[in-house]
Amino acid sequence: MLSDVDEVLRKLLIREIDIQGNEVDIQFDQPKREWSSRLSKPTINLFLFDLRENLRLRGAEQYRTITRPDGMAEIRRNPVRMDLRYLMTAWVKEAEDEHLLLASALTGLLRNPFLPEDLLTPRLQNQPTPIPLDVATFPPEPGPMDKFSEIWGVLDNELRPGILVTVTVAIDPYSPMVYPRVRSLETRFVQDSAIQQPAAPVVTRAPSKTYHSVGGRIKSEKYTPSSLSMVLVETHSAVEISEDGGYTLHKVMDGEYHLDILFNQKVLKRQKIVVPSPSYDIQI
């Protein structure tokens, strides 16, 4: 993943600065004194010095459930959004030429708020969102960029003007968990005679009403789930339909129920369901 981001940044700089042939090098080494002493041509260096999770992009829901056509439910943990922080510097003998090269690199990257899709490697093409490219902005949390002088002290080299370049990529190291999809959830409430006071007569109570939470999926080749609405006829209450057509009825007892599926406020179908049942899927 890291080498893929390096390669995209290399191609992006070559295209934006219009580097011809080998007139300018683009390297990713640590800019130590020994390294800089061996340079023989103008060089742009992108030193990856910091990797950390972007906590601002971590959602409240860490898991998502995907319903598969085979009746199984796939539970996936959301990918981790990682900030890759580079220190971009230019290395030329004359200060004027150095500033010119650094300004060209800065201008070229600022033109791209995201890594261009046509430059992405195969491993970067499955990202859940476009890959942000932040240039010359400091992160809100404290970190190594607070003191440039300390970085150069560790690298044992002279202080040079540098630009912070941050690329935010999603990394998914987790394997999905697959389980049979729950069709009915039954909840019972009973009175336990064991909790009666010793002086009180022992009374055996029958179980109270049994409630279920049942779920199914609307299947249609003609209508998208977002264009449909659903009403439980017996209670005249709306039933929420998810993007994949899934729906859930809460706190229903054993018996027969009717669901109206509507399109543009017109009933397409009235579906009878029996609780409990092995399936509550509806075909339209």
Outline the structure in words:
With 284 residues, this protein is an alpha+beta fold. 16% of the residues lie in helices and 36% in strands. It has two domains: 2-176; 182-194 and 207-283, Immunoglobulin-like (Sandwich). The strands form four sheets. It has a five-stranded mixed β-sheet with strand order 1-2-5-7-6. Strands 9, 10, 13 and 16 form a four-stranded mixed β-sheet that branches. Strands 12-11-14-15 form a four-stranded antiparallel β-sheet, with no helix packed on it. The protein is elongated. It starts with a helix and ends with a strand. Residues 4-171 form the Pvc16 N-terminal domain.
Summarize, please.
This is Pvc16 N-terminal domain-containing protein. With 284 residues, the protein is an alpha+beta fold. The chain has 4 helices and 16 strands.
Q: What Rg do the Cα atoms give?
A: 30 Å
Structural class call reads alpha+beta
Shape: elongated
Helix content percent band:
10-25%
The total of beta strands comes to 16
- As for the number of domains, it is 2
Task: Count up the helices.
Answer: 4
- Describe the sheet with the most strands: 5 strands, mixed
Unreliable spans are none
- End-to-end separation in angstroms reads 44 Å
Return the string of H and E elements: HEHEEEEHEHEEEEEEEEEE
Strand sequence of the main sheet, in spatial order?
1-2-5-7-6
Mean pLDDT: 84
Estimate what percentage of residues fall within beta strands. 35-45%
Domain Pvc16 N-terminal: 4-171
Organism: Ornatilinea apprima
Protein name: Pvc16 N-terminal domain-containing protein
